[in-house]
Amino acid sequence: MKVKKNDTVLVLTGKDAGKTAKVLVAMPKTNKVVVDGINVQKKHKKARSAQEVSSIVNQSGPIDASNVLVICSSCGKATRVAYKVEGDKKVRVCKKCGAVLDTTKEAKEVKKTSKKKTKKEAAEAEAK
User: Fold this and answer.
1) Residue 8: what pLDDT?
2) Which phi and psi (to 5°) does residue 82 adopt?
3) pLDDT (tens digit, 9 = 90+) per residue, 9-66?
4) Residue 23 CA to chain centroid, in angstroms?
5) 90 - beta bridge partners?
6) Per-residue pLDDT reduced to its tens digit, 88-110
7) Which residues have C-beta within 8 Å of that of residue 60, sequence separation ≥ 6?
8) Which pLDDT does position 17 carry in this prediction?
9) Sign of the dihedral defined by the CA atoms of residues 80, 86, 91, 94, in that order
10) Alpha-carbon distances of 8 from 27, 71, 126, rounded to whole Å
11) I need a surface site. Which of 40, 59, 60, 118 has the fewest CB within 10 A?
């Protein structure tokens, strides 16, 4: 599936056509995605105990993945997704500008480890 969780997408069809939002859930088996604030449905929630109150809750329903286009973070345009092999990894690429769309776990781990200081480094920084 070309659309993943946390992608920003443009809705192409339906009552919410033209809106952009973030993907909350991707369901590759059914080829559907749940997009924040798109295809809003009302759900009647019944009280389960005497203390709870019954209510009507708005929730985002799933839409077909073919009805959305991924928005490239570098060029800002809605684009189809291409694939490219870099080393031994297969990554998603923007068709218009060629930028990589995947946010890798390795890059996130590097950022996390670089921010944390060990106790020795903190003590040395205070001593200076």
Assistant:
1) 94
2) -110, 165
3) 999 999 999 999 999 999 999 999 999 999 999 999 999 999 999 999 999 999 999 9
4) 4
5) 85
6) 999 999 998 889 998 755 444 44
7) 24, 34, 35, 36, 37, 38, 39, 40, 41
8) 94
9) negative
10) 16, 6, 42
11) 118
Q: Are 97 and 73 in contact (CB under 8 A)?
A: no
Residue positions counted in the chain: 128
Separation CA 88–CA 75 (nearest Å): 26
Q: What is the DSSP string of the chain?
A: ----TT-EEEE-SSTTTT-EEEEEEEETTTTEEEETTSSEEEEEE--SSSSS--EEEEEEPEEEGGGEEEEPTTT--EE-EEEEEETTEEEEEETTT--B----HHHHHHHHHHH---HHHHHHHHH-
Amino acid 119: pLDDT: 63
